[in-house]
Amino acid sequence: MNDILQQLGHIKIIPIIALEEAETAVPLGKALLAGGLPCAEITFRTAAAAEAIQKMSAAHPDMLVGAGTVLTVAQARQAKAVGAQFIVTPGFDTAVVDWCLAHEMPITPGVITPTDINQALAKGLNVLKFFPAEAAGGIKFLKAVAAPYGGVKFIPTGGINETNLADYLRLPMVHACGGSFMVEKSWLSAGQFDKVTEMSARAAAIVKTI
Questions:
Q1: Which residues are marked as active site?
Q2: CA distance 174 to 160
Q3: Is the pLDDT of residue 1 over 90?
Q4: Angle separating helix axes 49-59 and 73-81, nearest 10 degrees
Q5: 135-159: per-residue pLDDT in tens?
Q6: C-alpha angle 26-6-13 in degrees, rounded to nearest 5
Q7: How many domains does one find in the chain?
Q8: Is the pLDDT of residue 202 over 90?
Q9: The pTM is what?
Q10: How far apart, in whole angstroms, are the C-alpha atoms of residue 130 and residue 15?
């Protein structure tokens, strides 16, 4: 397994963040680190994504900063250029996967069906994003779809919160979980980074109980 993906597996919880202002990235990174979460997935859902990745990576070299919601090869190329250390896609896009593999960029493509998982395995990938986790059926569905794939690890994302995080992390096929509950948009817009630190610490504490 790729070293970056191994590290994410040790951290266990990946904050997923859509930033409207790139300037927020540096204090946000500081808040996540203070709460015990040395990683972040900055999504390409906003125009600030690339600059935010660049700023957070430069200011906090001890963090694992990745790019999420990557939909195109152009976005993957841009993410790598600004310092992203891993790429996450919502679904399985062959062109994006092939580009990442060709450029030695760790990628966790989104899957939800056995067909998706088979496509990933054919590319040599065995750490996959399970999305949208709760909407698709949650833990019960994940157990069923993962059963035939003993060597595959999943990162459930979508509907993960403080209440169900531990239940997901206890599953042997779960590598880590992605969630946004520790980074509320209202906190970021109000500059309430202390709340990010507090909720990150609570999430990190849950990880330690597993």
A1: 41, 129
A2: 13
A3: no
A4: 30
A5: 999 999 999 999 999 999 999 999 9
A6: 50
A7: 1
A8: yes
A9: 0.97
A10: 15
User: Residue 133 sits in a domain of what CATH number?
Assistant: 3.20.20.70
Task: Name the strands in the sheet holding 153-156, side by side, starting at the edge strand that comes first in the sequence.
Answer: 110-111, 127-130, 153-156
Q: What SS3 string covers 76-140?
A: HHHHHHCCCCCEECCCCCHHHHHHHHHCCCCEECEECCHHHHHHHHHCCCCEEEECCHHHHCHHH
Q: What is the DSSP letter of 22?
A: G
Q: What is the pLDDT of residues 65-94, one digit of tens each?
A: 999 999 999 999 999 999 999 999 999 999
Q: What's the domain range around 186? A: 3-208
Pull the structure tokens for residue 69: 């919601």
Nearest to 155 by CA among 195, 197, 199, 120: 120
Gap between the Cα atoms of 108 and 120, Å rounded? 9
Neighbour-count burial of 46, counting CB atoms closer than 10 A to its CB (0-12 exposed, 13-18 middle, 19+ buried):
middle
